[in-house]
Design a protein that fits this description.
It contains 6 helices and 10 strands. By secondary structure, it is an alpha+beta fold. The chain binds pyridoxal-5'-phosphate.
Length: about 230
């Protein structure tokens, strides 16, 4: 989130041809890029003729309430990998490219055994159709805001909670201590979550989540976090 740092790190280096990043880092600990930083970075990429490559594998496909998380900044990437939610569980990956990069791969350049197979392609098409029909982007935005507000209310003021961040249904709760133990405890209570970057509880629930289910998540998670912080 520091445009001066990237300028300094790349100044006078002719070998830099692209930047590659996630709009919201997933494994890195649910770290969002600021909107103004994304806009500044787009401008820098244009000035320096760098490709802007945005990995939306985890934060894309509706998770934040827009199709792609970078759309909140009103920018367009030149290259964008997608996967995960694109196939609703059927293995699929895709790379989307705009005019600056689309010519680089020609048919036949990139072969894989299962690339473009009809089952996975159909799963992708149907996923997009169902997401549109069922208004799942709006649901992710609405239920995500509800969940975040409830987490803020229940956990936000605890001294061991550093920050609750993220957007839509991609949320992270950063604690002041490692919280890997919560994964097993939550699973026993009937709640699947993951911990990234050692101290961040990551929540990336289904985009069909309801507000009542979000409340249930908070009710299950709150006592576990309080108990962990009290240890
Ligand atoms: C942001 C991000 N990019 C890429 C990948 C890799 O995607 P795949 O497992 O489909 O190769 C992952 C996780 O698996 C991810 O979280």
């Amino acid at each position: 989130n520091d445009i001066e740092a990237i300028k300094k790190a790349t100044e006078g280096n002719p070998n830099v041809v692209a930047v590659f990043f996630e709009t919201i880092q997933g494994e890195g600990g649910v770290n969002p890029m600021r909107i103004d930083y994304l806009q500044q970075l787009r401008k820098l990429c244009d000035e320096r003729d760098w490709l802007m490559m945005i990995d939306e594998v985890q934060c894309g496909m509706g998770r934040t309430g827009k199709w792609f998380a970078h759309q909140w900044a009103g920018i367009l990437p030149d290259v964008m990998p997608l996967a995960k939610g694109l196939g609703s569980g059927v293995p699929i990956g895709a790379v989307v490219a705009g005019p600056k990069a689309a010519h680089i791969f020609a048919p036949g350049n990139h072969g894989t055994t299962f690339g473009g197979n009809p089952l996975a392609m159909r799963a992708g098409v149907e996923t997009i159709r169902i997401m549109e029909e069922e208004g799942l982007l709006q649901n992710a935005a609405d239920v995500g805001a509800h969940l975040k507000a409830a987490l803020e209310r229940e956990l936000g003021s605890l001294p061991g909670v550093k920050e609750i961040r993220g957007q839509g249904l991609m949320l992270g709760i950063e604690l002041t201590k490692p919280c890997g133990a919560l994964v097993g405890q939550a699973a026993e209570a009937g709640l699947l979550l993951s911990v990234t970057a050692d101290t961040v509880i990551r929540m990336v629930p289904s985009l069909t989540l309801t507000k009542a289910e979000a409340d249930e998540i908070v009710a299950l998670l709150t006592p576990l976090v309080k108990a962990l912080l009290a240890e």
